[in-house]
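Q: Structure for this?
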Amino acid sequence: MTELMLKYFRTKQQKIQSEKVYDTQCPFCSMQCKMQLIEQTVVSRKVYKTVGKDNPTTGGRLCVKGMSAHQHTLNNERVNQPLLKVNGNFVAITWKEALDVIKKEFTTIQKQNGSDALSVYGSASLTNEEAYLLGKFARVALKTKHIDYNGRLCMASAATGANLTFGLDRGFTNTLQEIPYTRCIILVGTNIAECQPTIMPYFEQAKENGAYIIVIDPRETKTTDIADLHLKNKPGTDATLANALLKVIVDEELIDKKFLRKRVNGFAEVVHHLKNLDLDECVKVTGLAKEQLCQAARTFGQEDSGMIFTARGIEQQTNGTETVRGFINILLATGRIGKPNSGYGAITGQGNGQGAREHGQKADQLPGYRSIEKKEDRSYIAQVWGVEEKQLPGSGVSAYQMFEKIDEGNITGMLVMGSNPALSSPNANFVKRSLERLKFLVTVDMFISETAQLADLILPASSYLEDQGTMTNVEGRVTLREASRSLPGEVKHDWQIICDIAEVLGKGDKFSFHSAEEIFEELRVASRGGRADYYGITYDRIRKHNGLLWPCPDMDHQGTKRLFEDDFAHEDGKANMSVIGRSHKKVNLSEEYPLFLTTGRVMSHYLTGEQTRKSPSLTARNFESYMEIHPDTGEKYQLEDRTLAQIESRYGRIVVRSKWSKRIRKDTVFVPFHWGGEQNVNRLIADELDPLSHMPGFKVTAVNTRPVQS
Ligand SMILES: Nc1nc2c(c(=O)[nH]1)N[C@H]1C(S)=C(S)[C@@H](COP(=O)(O)OP(=O)(O)OC[C@H]3O[C@@H](n4cnc5c(=O)[nH]c(N)nc54)[C@H](O)[C@@H]3O)O[C@H]1N2
Ligand SMILES: Nc1nc2c(c(=O)[nH]1)N[C@H]1C(S)=C(S)[C@@H](COP(=O)(O)OP(=O)(O)OC[C@H]3O[C@@H](n4cnc5c(=O)[nH]c(N)nc54)[C@H](O)[C@@H]3O)O[C@H]1N2
Ligand code: SF4
Ligand SMILES: [Mo]
């Protein structure tokens, strides 16, 4: 540091009147980077700085979103009081008034339309404690079967695929620490460089150590930039691609026969199916060269260790579950799982995308990955909750299907906590109309999101700086988000809001919690003996061990770093391979809709942008949506670079600016989904769902495009 710089810093130091440091974790993606917000008062003004904090998952790294997260949280658009819609306008009311309104409306709805007419829409932004409590609230306080959450649009296909194949779904079978030592990596439908930026050093290290990296994506991205081989396939063709890779591996005898014999069911059927698969046909379907397919398959098959990572690119498809299974088939055939430096990873999306899918927010699920349809699971949880087993409702429908139920008149009330489905759901015009049809909609949010605008009542929720609780990160590591900033205005924590509503509904005795830790203590017991067993995890142990990987069944257990070393989680201990790609209805192009549309993310914004669009630093990077389009395609449709384009599908139309790029396929356009209104790409997405996971097909839609007439 030069003399001059030292002098500058000293003068600046002298001006700092006070300093507060808040420990927390980033509110955005599944990396859950640990960080501190430093609040300094300088000449009576508050200034903020975010610094990373060391931890086993991310070191001290942060990306630009984490660094800027306080900007939305401290933004003055934050909702600080309950808001009731009166004659079309929101007016501030007290909590007592708000709870009275809820009591009246919820009771009336259930009296008139039955218990299941009330529904709950949850979120993987919630802590484990809140996700758990919301599931209990729906079943015990509201007695409704209708609860599902935004993870249905996110991790559902990965979860279903892993459950069917392994008998257990923890996103990563190994820890991140093993990645640098693997020899071959397939990244399929994932853009980690923009979506989990702080994971990148693990892959860069692998590359330095000589690993061969294959990335499968219809676009060139910052992630494909690290690839040794980029397979730029047509969107929606990954199941065929997985089958083609496996065919080459089987034909060239790159399989692990001993592993298959001892640990896998169903290989013979798969081989039988592959016999009839025509590689030339696969080449046509995927739009790839045969040499590329063979090169990828051979390299993966010949190296002595390998890992496959999937994300939403292949999962958010109407055949997402089977595509995931197709890629896991490759790992099973080559014996690349349950061993050091070999394994599978579904790269989790939201901050608590892992934990929030384990403890009962899903329509068919009870805590600890228990099933709401299984008698013994129901009895166990009923006993933990102090209710009769037969009082627990059965399973409800998935997230998007709840909007169909509203349209049919079967659901008439909804509580949304931590989600913005008006923007994030497929067929968004329909979803908006459904939300408008509700007799009573209450949203719990930090902001008046597009969904909250449609609400009758908005309840103010706390943020990552204020709300303590556990989050289970991308590795399956249960972390403790410390949070100590005092609550602004009349804001409450999500868990407090759940308890308060339960209280006015006469169920306060089952929801008398005074801290997140108290809820976690109940969650531990509820998860005990389940597949996602947290019983051996406590706040103290998390602090001591810097997080613990589940399953962790007792207090002496050190957490599970690598899954499936001896057995898979099915009863016979084996993994189930399955034949894939037999019945899927592909999205076809036509004269009317001649282009594939795919959707996804940019580095600087998060999901529907409700939070990141409020951050000046992040908005400065991308202030509006766009359509990535190949220049040749642009010219074909008279769309210059940076002109306003209309995009239309069978479901709706939007307007965004064109952005020429040679990095995308000529038959494909890409639009991110972080913006609303006319730019909401979900107005174009079809209502078809994966039959197994109920995941929408966000990643491929047939569209047309033309310049907007001025
Ligand atoms: N910056 C940022 N980071 C985030 C988020 C965010 O909103 N912004 N969200 C978080 C969440 S909740 C999630 S779920 C994750 C999502 O993380 P990702 O799944 O990695 O993100 P996406 O951009 O949705 O899609 C990944 C890639 O799939 C490609 N793709 C599209 N269609 C296909 C296809 O048919 N086949 C193949 N092989 N690839 C295809 C896209 O071109 C894209 O590059 O990110 C998390 N991190
Ligand atoms: N076209 C297209 N659509 C997609 C996707 C895609 O790739 N393409 N991806 C899908 C995926 S993977 C996901 S995860 C979904 C996500 O979609 P959404 O669930 O709609 O996600 P968010 O935009 O995070 O909405 C969260 C809302 O909750 C608020 N919030 C944040 N934290 C908290 C909290 O702790 N408590 C409370 N009460 N409120 C909070 C925010 O202010 C915001 O309004 O979108 C899906 N939609
Ligand atoms: S967005 Fe993800 S990678 Fe970036 S700081 Fe937050 S948790 Fe870390
Ligand atoms: Mo997600």
